[in-house]
Amino acid sequence: MLTHYIKILFMLILTGGVYAQDAALTSVIGPTDGCDLGNESISIVVLNNSSMPNPIPGGTITLHYSVNGGPTVSQPLVAMLNTGATWNFTFDVPSDFSTCNYDFNVVTWLEYGADVDPTNDTLSWVVRNDCTIVPGQVDSDELVCDGINSNTLNLNGWQHGTITNWIYSEDNGATWNSIPNTTTSHGFNNLTDETQFAVEIDGGHCPNATSGFATITIQPTPVGGSLTGPTALCISSANGTIDLTGNSGAVLDWETSIDNGTTWIGIGNTTTQENFSGLTQTTMYRALIDGGVCADVYSSIHEVYIEEATVAGTLETDTLICENQAVNLVLSGNVGAVDDWESSVDGTNWSPITNTSTTHGTGPLSTPTYYRVNVTNGICPADQSNQVFVDVQENITPGTISGGTATCAANASGALTLNGNNSPVIHWEQSTNQGANWNIISNTSNTENYSSLSQTTWYRVLVDGGVCNDQHSDTAFIVVSPISVGGTLTGDTSICYGDPFTLSLTGNVGDVSFWESSADGVSWTTINITDSSYTIPSVTSPYYYRVIVKSGVCAEDTSNQAFVQVLSLPVVDAGTDANILQGDSVELNGSGGVLALWSADSTLSDTTIYNPVASPLETTDYYLTVISLDGCFNSDTVTVNVGPPIPPLDVKNLITPNNDGFNDTWIIEGIEAFPNMAVKVYNIYGVLVFEDEDYKNDWGGIYSSKLLPNGTYLYIVMPGGTENVLKGNLTILGDE
Q1: What integer is the mean pLDDT of 445-461?
Q2: Distance CA 513, CA 528 (A)
Q3: In whole angstroms, what is the distance from residue 561 CA to residue 523 CA?
Q4: Among candidate residues 8, 78, 18, the one with its CA nearest the CA of residue 54
């Protein structure tokens, strides 16, 4: 009891002699978001949040509210609030929340003089008022042309809510499809089915609604129909009737054109039949059909072609041709189409030729022949042209030339003779560029003499053909070979042993017959090569070389001789193969020549010295090339074999020799990489209790045939092949 009074006294001291009090607003009762709100009461929950039992007397708390920052409404809380008690408080003065589609910001707060915590004295919230939708009507129904239409629909009379999208139906409202459009207008184009359009409106806190719909009715595309009637008439009887069928609307007018449809003239005929007479030129007809709400359309076009009277025309002219030649005959001045051509060898009996063009190629003729043409212009009567006579002259024989030969330029003279020609010689011709150009020789006899020719020359004769083409005889060839010249071989040279070398011949006149080689320059061996160059794949011995050249029928000639000397290769040694572990390096030991060059390799410290350091990560071949003072090269190879890196050692620090299969012996993981593993174990007094120069993970804590007592020991591990020494503590627990 005394303790209780001490606590009360302590609280009085802390609070100045009264209890600490806290009045708080905890939650909103109303109003909340809704549809078609009006004058709504403001209700909140008030809490006596005091930490000690201390009622708040009635009339000491004043509550206030304000809507959208407007006038403040104040009202006292008349009820007394016990500690921890709440009061559902409603202001007597309501507020107007009837503005449609509007967010009202409501703030309430309290005033209490003894309040020690003002942070919980205020509540604020937003009240949304949505009004019932007036959905409006989409304006307006319309009749449009199938597939060729466009317009903009508008939603009128709509109030409240938010447009979510337009919708449309192509099955009289049975199903509706959404259109992503939130505006009050929607454009349509190129509809092909009757369609209804409406608008869906989101009412927020009020029910959603759909506007009235507009119906777009489709008128089928109009059909112009087809015209039928005569298509071709002779000018002497150009009368007839054209009929229209298959049209979908009334005839507005008929039109005609005499310039192939460039301009059209109305006739003033609204029936489905047009009569015409006395046409003098080709005329087109069409009918204009009423399209309703669609564009007016035309029927098909019907053309009445007016044929002129047939005129067969004229063939020109009688002609004389050479035997087996052809002539192209041309008909001119005809009016109408060619039915066929006719031919005759006597001018009396005629044979038809299947040809409807105004030209006719006779093909090779060997017999004199007459020709004429039959012409018909459309439906007008046929007509026949004049006839022409094609006479035929026998072809000539130009003959052949004898006396062609092959000779050396030292003695190029002789005679050629034309034989077998049946027509006079016009002239002889000669060519020194294989017939590309011919030079005329003023010689009309059948014999041509030539002398001192310096190059190959072709000869032919042009013989008079009369009315036939002049013709050439065959060609005679005087093949003149220039005097053989052996030419010059590349001069004497020195080649490194084993290298290839190519000898080249220049300045020769004539073809290479063969090459020759000789070890002493006296006895020669034939090399069956006819090229002007010869490649020795690998020079291993000194030799002399020369070339034998022959020009046509002239005597052979021999080139100079060239001597190829052989230079010895420098001695090279890349050194002895080496073995290292991965991560190690080794110095290479090369020798030979006067300069060294190792193959490019990033694992070499320097590729231009004899003794670079190699640091490969895997087994690698290195190539050393040296050069002698003569400039000859030689190479050798050394291999550095790279073994795997030494694995890390893991010395275990525990032995539990209880035969459970775990830690029964002292284990050093990675020991298999070291051929000799020396170990020593000491007790805490420095006594050596175990030693092995080649440990195999087999010691179980035995000393002098007994298990060592439990405790801590010192080990020393010395891996074979390394200078590392590992030390640490080893614990033996024999009863674990």
Answers
A1: 93
A2: 8
A3: 13
A4: 18
User: In sequence order, what DSSP letters do the residues of 367-414 get, joined into one string?
Assistant: S-EEEEEEEE-TTSPPEE---EEEEEEPPP---EEE--EEEEGGG--E
Classify the C-alpha dihedral 90-91-96-97 as positive or negative: negative
Alpha-carbon distance 485 to 453, whole Å? 19
* Contact present, 418 and 471 (Cβ < 8 Å): no
- Is the omega angle on the peptide bond into residue 381 within 30 degrees of 0, that is, cis? no
Q: Among residues 40, 44, 38, which one has the least CA distance to residue 61?
A: 44
What values do phi and psi take at 538, rounded to 5? -150, 115
DSSP string spanning 535-588?
Answer: EESS--S-EEEEEEEE-TTSPPEE---EEEEEEPPPPEE----EEEETT--EE-
> What 3-state DSSP class applies to 35?
strand
Q: What is the rounded distance in angstroms from the CA atom of residue 280 to the CA atom of residue 282?
A: 7
- Which of 67, 65, 66, 64 has its CA nearest to residue 103? 67
Query: Which residues lie closer than 8 Å to 590 by C-beta, 6 or more apart?
Result: 572, 573, 574, 575, 596, 598, 610, 611, 624, 626, 636, 638
Pairing of strands 726-732, 654-655: parallel
Longest Cα–Cα distance in the chain:
170
DSSP state, residue 275 = E
Full-prediction pTM beyond 0.70?
no
Query: CA 724, CA 714: separation in Å to the nearest integer?
Result: 17
Residue-wise pLDDT tens digits, 213-271: 999 999 999 999 999 999 989 887 889 999 999 999 999 999 999 999 999 999 999 99
According to DSSP, the β-strands at 405-408 and 476-481 are parallel
Q: Which two tokens stand for residue 262?
A: 């460039």
